[in-house]
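Write out the 3D structure for:
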Amino acid sequence: QVQLVQSGGGLVQAGGSLRLSCAASERTFSSYVMGWFRQAPGKEREFVAAINESGGSTSAADSVTGRFTISRDNAKDTVYLQMNSLKPEDTAVYYCAAGPLPPFYGPSYFSTAVARPSLYHYWGQGTQVTVSS
């Protein structure tokens, strides 16, 4: 059982930046793809970004591309989400998640699979991000 503990988040003005962190409890962290999702009040959980096991491949939603960056440090069992140029519509509870990918896959499979919440077996506790206008 992998436990994911999130930190970061909070209140920021539009145009500002925040960094979210998600630390895993096990050394098997490097064997999982890591994703970030968010859920705003009254809306479904939506994909934000994901990064493969080695950190060599990433995928991000169109709404955050160019503003958010996902990264990971396997030595620290931690994944990060750097959020810049924040907008009020980024306000949501953000969740990190960990899941397995098959041993071999292509780029098209990766970008499709990592956007599905069903891929992920483990979820963080969630952290609130509020962007004021």
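The longest helix spans residues 107-113.
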